[in-house]
Amino acid sequence: MKKVAMYLRLSKEDEYIRDESNSISSQRALIKKHIRGIPELKKMETVEFKDDGYTGKNMNRPGMQDLLTMVKAQKIGCIVVKDISRFSRETIWKPASIWNRYCRLWVCVS
To answer: Domains of the chain, with CATH numbers?
Structure first.
């Protein structure tokens, strides 16, 4: 069975707004609550990928690379993020290319 991927990111550029709404722990809590509210996702095993202190301007992040490896191996059925900017600042093409090739379900919580 495919897994639900939670992707969390907070960049060094976001340090000036490190309030609770942008923290890794806040993102984690918000995403877990959202997953628990969706019966299809609640049944699936959840895997967390995290990049704390990495920019969203490129995909060269350890957690992102681990996530992409699992997505390409077709082990991920859904990616859940707080908002699309946590995944990538290059929102015009990066998420779409991954969605179209490997993953059919994305959930942005906010």
So the answer is: 3-108 (3.40.50.1390)
